[in-house]
Amino acid sequence: MRTPVQRTLISLAVASACWMVGAAAHAQQAQTEPATDTTPEATAPEASLDGPATPAAAEPASTSVVRISGSRIAARGFSQPTPTTSLSAADLEKAAKPNLFNTLTELPALQGSTGRTTSTNSTSSGIQGLSSLSLRGLGTIRTLTLLDGQRVVGANVTGVTDVSQFPQLLVKRVDVVTGGASASYGSDAVGGVVNFVTDKTFTGFKSNVQVGQTKYDDDRGATVQAAWGRAFLDNRLHVTASGEFTKENGIESPGIGGVGPNGRTWYQNPAYSVRPLNQTGDGLPQYRVISNAQQYQYSKYGLITNGPLQGTAFGDGGVPYQFQYGSNGRPTGTGAVTNCVNPFCIGGDLSGSVGSGTNLAMNFKRQVAYTRVSYDLDANNQVYFTANYGQVASRFSPNPGAAKNANLTVQCSNPFLPASILAACAQNNITSFQYGTANAIFPENIDVQPTRTQRRFVIGAEGRFDLFGKSWAYDAYVTHGENKTNLDANNMTINRRYNAAIDAVRAPNGQIVCRNPVAAASGCVPLNIIGNNPVDPAAWAYIAPENGPRQRTTQSQDVGSFNVNGELFDGWAGPVSVATGAEYRREKYRVRGDAYGNGVSPASPNNAMYPVDPLLDTTVGNNWYAGNFHNGDGSYNVREAYVELNIPLFKSATWGEANLNLADRETKYSTAGSVGSWKMGATWQTPIDGLRLRGVTSKDVRAPNLSELYAAPVVVNNVVQYQGNTISVQERTVGNTALRPEIARNNSFGIVLSQPTWAPGFSVSLDYFDIKVKGVIAALTIQQEVDLCVAGNQEICAAMVLNSPGNNYVTLQNFNLASLQTKGFDIETSYRTGLERLNLPGRFTFRALGTRNLHFITDTGVVGTIPVDAAGSNMSNTPKWKVLAQQTWEHDKLSLTLTERWVSDGTYRNDFIECQTGCPVSTLIHPTIYNNRMKGATYFDLGGSYNVSKQLQLYFKIDNLADKDPEPVPQTNASYGINPALYDVVGRTYRAGLRYGF
Description:
By secondary structure, the protein is mainly β. Helix content is about 10%, strand content about 45%. It has a domain at about 295-355 and about 400-445 and about 490-545.
């Protein structure tokens, strides 16, 4: 059943094509563009989601020049066809978040962004703690994020930026362009553009101090920000500087045992219970979603998982006992458990569960320093310099212990075994048994610490000049940026050392030693994993050396850009405007892993940090328990030029006015070759009061990034099925320099009703979007590549040799095989009014925005698969509905804001067939499931502010007022079981602060 709030929101959607937040100019100026479509620059009116813009005194609003982030055109009366939503500084302040990133991700069009609550179970993915934005669920790599219209050096090898490294206090507006913009801005703008616009002429001083914590007395944090600006030399020299510090302590792992951290009782060990396909002919579903899932391949301190002693667990001091399986399960002696479906039982002894041991939120620290210095050469020309330093450090535990799922072999001669087990081994005539353990005896959890440090410098010039009797504007700049990422992981074990340490024997002198003489000679210290016993510090130092995985990455970006725009001539319906420019960009990265991870032998046998160990693989590496720490490097350059035109078509009292917007960009990549992108759009301000139509179609591109082109090579041994036989192959993971750009076709059509005379203060818009991406770059499994080759794909066949025993290999790399398509509509509204007519004080503002995903279809291009539609799958990033609504009351010094965030009900997966009895035989393409319904969520936030004086403001914010729990997300391995991309996983959060400025 839907809540009353949900029903109300749906009713609003039906009644007025739903409500969507507009930029403040929605509430102002019937004869000018609403703020959702325009971004004022210089002396233009300041737009805001909060309310009406204030016309500047310099020139009347009707002649103001407008620059729009979705376009390069800056011209009088220009209305762009691409929908753009702007968040003003006032909007950002009302959100009262410690990071602007968290405010933006609440916008419905932002789906699939990464932050400090995502990827907390990852060790070396490179995106841990990375605040990166994703539009339309198309991924962070298909969303272009800009700072003052300029590219920013990527924060990892995929090229995506880290918003947390941006200067945020000086941001006066954030423009979100929800449509393809490659023709205007270049590669990556497939889903759209997010542009952070700073206040370049800020004068005075302002500061912000904020503290906060959750209801559960954790994730305590503090933010301190300050900015200063002043003009010198008769206002020709302007200097601006800002500094920011944010610390959020995160939510630590509660450890092993299947409980939520700090009193969060919602954790349920959710998982899929999955029957084998060949057993689904009985009319019952293959999948069931279960709670209190118990993995039966290990226990907290050790469990025998096969043979006649299966079901024997070990407790304090290594004392054996009979393990309590859930589901009334009984061990069979073959590794299976009756009444349980591999690998889970339900209930029983959950003390060894590691699923809840992942941090809910990372410990997070950001430090940013920024300055801009500009000098007016004359009244029309300015030179400037900006410098930015941003460091973001995260810390978290991906999981407690280091679970071994029944993949250990313990010899009956192991001296750590109790006498009763030795006797049972002899009685049952066995010499070894299979064993699994959560390794709860480990003294420390794995600790991952990525630190990103950005240094970015820009030198530029901007101004105006006269040519052919017209005034033209230009901007030119060069920028150099570097991001250095240090990834340090501590308390990580080395697999081969662990295996050698647990395989102990008693020496003739009675001492317990490692069985392997090579290991013993190189420093192996025996480790007792039979039950709960203190870990010998020497054994821990051997299996988890202090010089745990290390990775050092440097990414650099150099850009040179020149742009000019102006009016070519006055046409019959207005000025014909043009913007044109050229850009050169060079991207480069270099990564170096540690010797144990990369596989490079230390230079000297006396290397103190990574001593030579004959037990380890010094050729391939991959010695650590988890993660990929290999060397890699690569670079590419880009040359491009573009032109954009705005052509007024007609302007009359009878027909209204319309304009045509055209753009073309030609790009040459040193790796991927040449590619073109274009845009064609139009707007029509109809003669109907306040009604405007807009539409745009575009070809957009995303070039392969450094990671896809030059992935760090990894080589391991594997097997594949080929021509009916199982053959051994060498699996080689590398980049693919032959990748081509992804090509997208972006179509949108919208209706805007802005400020009609019969409804002053009211605006609403509805925009339909349809994005198709072909040649999507994606990686395949080794077996998928072999199957595609057998099916006749010659490009894939060139990546392998399968008919040379002893020399067979398969090269795993990215290919342009997949495709994506997403379609849906955005709805947006705002209404602002005074309350005098109701004899009430103050002003009231209602605004809301929502995105309805109709389809999100992925076709992997793999043999034996079909396209999958993820729209409405709440385990993914694209729910059917995502809505943000807000109501604000303001009076004199006081302001109160109530916010609702809603995610609609959905499914676990859309390819499931839901049935309880009489089910068809389950297949890989269409598996069956007992219940395929996953609840959505409604969250309420409350905030307010009080102006003590003109200089001082106090404010507060409570997020997730009702402390709504996240919905459980079943996993095949019983990990944390949440989806932080859609649901609030932190709980009720309190924040308070003060802002001071003059």
